[in-house]
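HOLO CASE FILE
Compound: CU-O-CU linkage
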Amino acid sequence: MQNVILDLETEMVERPNVYELPTSSDNLTWYARAVERMKTRPSTDPTSWHYQGAIHGFNPLNPYWNGVGQLPSQQEQDDYWRQCQHGSWYFLPWHRMYLAYFEQIVGAAIVELGGPADWALPFWNYSDSANPNALTIPSAFTTPADSSNPLWMPNRNDTLNPDYVTLEALNVEPYTGDGITRPLGFGGPETVFSHSGRTHGALERLPHDMVHVDIGGAMGNPQTAALDPIFWLHHANIDRLWQVWLNQGGRVNPTENNWTDFTFDFHDSQGQPTVMNVGDVQDTTQILRGYTYQGVPAALPAAPAPRLALAAAIPFEIVGAANAPLALGSAPQQMDLAVASSSRRAARGRSSAQASGVTYLHFENITGTGAPPVYDVYLNLPSGTAGDTG
Ligand code: C2O
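Model generated. Tokens follow.
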């Protein structure tokens, strides 16, 4: 056991795109073997397949739970099962934690089976228009289509409707909002612990919910969804999209203590109880051994001002615009931009010194031929001075 712990202290991993795994990759072979191994463990073992699935949801009357066997004590079930957060601003961080421990548990099973110590959970990017197979569940999950394949599940729809995998959610700037008193947020409404909240945030609605519904079978119901091995690749993609959203800039996670200080209970790869804090899972490189996503920079956008999220929720007011196009060449160019004082600010009786707004400089319709050069933009450069690149 000691070795297993040490082996998992490996460097940060990159979660791969399941459709870009090299043909030589044995990632899914090891995943299948680990799932098979986890299924042999009793449901009282936190590292078993059933226990992991029940953390998300559990209903002993649902046929997908046939064969669950002996259950942990009611107290333990109350503390660790049926925990998934939906219709909540905890939707993203809770599922992120859930995946991080699951990845570690699968990784430990792989090491136990003699496999590599650097296994990482792949993600399924069903919205990738450059991939002709993107809408189809990767074949390792469907072939062979019987219980000899640990990644297979009955009653699945193997191909998604393209209308269900669109990414408009990425355009939603505020993280939080209920769609009633405030616009619907990217990450869900502010709630307390919310196992089955109804008002889903933009990303949770689409693509998240529709992918579940469309695949159907166990995936179509939160009480059974995590029993399907494809669940975890779907959620790795949702988790990746959280980072993609942040990387666009002008987007920030909640800063309220009710979000950052909230904690959830899990078990680690040794089956030991553990607690994670929402505020601590914002940077994926700092979670357990740390991870990034193939093709997605992990870095947060440089110094995101918390104010941006607020400003984004308020309609913009144009305070100035250039009235003619500007042709750029290799020499410095200058233009005057008359800025009127903000009527909204004036209405509040604020002087510009008290103003708390953010002013954006917006460039539109930039066209050209050839490789784009770099232009520096200076505001209010004192006349006679040159920019720092001369
Ligand atoms: Cu907790 Cu995709 O569900």
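CASE NOTES: The pocket of CU-O-CU linkage is lined by residues 56, 84, 86, 95, 208, 212, 222, 225, 235 (CB under 6 Å). The radius of gyration is 25 Å.
CLOSED: yes
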